[in-house]
DNA sequence: CTAGGTGCAAATTTTTTGCACATGC
DNA sequence: GCATGTGCAAAAAATTTGCACCTAG
């Protein structure tokens, strides 16, 4: 069956996602890694992001401005998505909040929770006021 | 400026979203409404869904299996997304849970909260066991 | 040697848009 | 009449996939 063979590219993608504090899209990863691997293909990035997500080594933050964003930080936290600039920031979630959410799984087996707050980040609020 | 003129199609889309308990995609809305409006265009559905979302009359549930899903129910609730069949089910969120989440908005101005639980719904769990 | 992994480019899929015509006010 | 809404079809944009070649084990 589908054995998992070691792959330098996949390792690099995983390492990058674990290292950065932003929440990259496939294209961002591609551009970043192309500096180290000039021959890298966008298809490979997509394939590996999908694979890593499915194996639970990274997680998807969902689609922002038409592009899926990924996160190498698996700890329990939510995301604040700025509707102005598309930035994705981590949001701490209280124990209470998470416990309350976990109770909602009466529909089947819950394997993941994603909390997304949307709004305007500080920078975009400032711009708004100036405009 | 962009005045809001009355539109039969937009009204129908809004009414449909308020009426159904599922969380339709643009295409689903299109197919459903084409029975009443044979000349309806998919472009019109997309334009109006976007407009309705921006004016806050409906909300987006985010992308499921590559398609954006919408919700005409504006009350505070979360969603359970089945990874097996793509179904989206409403999940009640406790007051406490929501309050705790709302506290996370230290990054700017929070205008929306979306809580998504992923997993397998009852039906898909059953199928899994049988398979 | 053999099952994976990758590059490349074409194909798919979803959503957006330009434009001519229709409609509300 | 004029700004806005719609149908249609083409365009965009993101992601997937087929295939020939490359590589780890």
What order do the helices and strands of chain A follow? HHHEEEEHEH
- Radius of gyration of chain A using CA atoms only: 17 Å
Distance between the termini of chain A: 58 Å
Uncertain ranges of chain A: none
**Secondary-structure arrangement, i.e. CATH architecture of the largest domain in chain A:** Orthogonal Bundle
CATH homologous superfamily placement of the largest domain in chain A:
Winged helix-like DNA-binding domain superfamily/Winged helix DNA-binding domain
So how many helices of chain A?
5
Q: Kindly state the mean pLDDT of chain A as a whole number?
A: 91
Category from helices, strands and their pairing of chain A: alpha+beta
Q: Could you tell me the strand content of chain A as a percent range?
A: 25-35%
Write down the oligomeric state. Answer: homodimer
Largest interface, and how many residues on either side?
A-B, 40 and 40 residues
State the major sheet of chain A: 3 strands, mixed
Q: Any idea of the CATH class of the largest domain in chain A?
A: Mainly Alpha
The percent of residues in helical segments of chain A reads 25-40%
Largest beta sheet of chain A: what is the strand line-up?
Answer: 4-3-5
Overall shape of chain A: it is flat
Write structural notes for this entry.
Two copies of one chain form a homodimer. Chain A has helices at 8-19, 26-34, 42-54, 95-102, 122-130, and strands spanning 59-64, 67-71, 78-82, 88-91, 108-121. The first copy, chain A, is α+β, with helices and mostly antiparallel strands and 131 residues long. The first copy, chain A, folds into two domains: 1-74, Orthogonal Bundle (Arc Repressor Mutant, subunit A); 75-131, Dna Ligase, domain 1 (2-Layer Sandwich). In chain A, a hairpin with a 2-residue loop joins β1 (59-64) and β2 (67-71). The radius of gyration of chain A is 17 Å and the shape is flat. The mean pLDDT of chain A is 91. At the A-B interface, β3, α4, β5 and α5 of A face β3, α4, β5 and α5 of B. β5 (108-121) of chain A pairs antiparallel with β5 of chain B. The structure holds a DNA duplex (25 and 25 nucleotides).
């Amino acid at each position: 069956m589908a054995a998992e063979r070691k792959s330098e590219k996949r390792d690099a993608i995983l390492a990058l996602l674990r290292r950065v504090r932003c929440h990259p899209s496939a294209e961002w990863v591609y551009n970043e890694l192309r500096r180290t691997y000039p021959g890298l293909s966008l298809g490979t990035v997509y394939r590996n992001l999908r694979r890593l997500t499915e194996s639970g080594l990274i997680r998807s933050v969902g689609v922002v401005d038409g592009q899926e964003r990924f996160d190498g930080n698996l700890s329990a936290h939510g995301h604040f998505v700025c509707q102005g600039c598309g930035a994705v920031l981590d949001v701490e979630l209280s124990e209470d909040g998470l416990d309350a959410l976990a109770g909602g799984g009466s529909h089947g087996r819950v394997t993941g929770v994603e909390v997304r707050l949307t709004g305007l980040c500080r920078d975009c609020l400032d711009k708004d006021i100036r405009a």
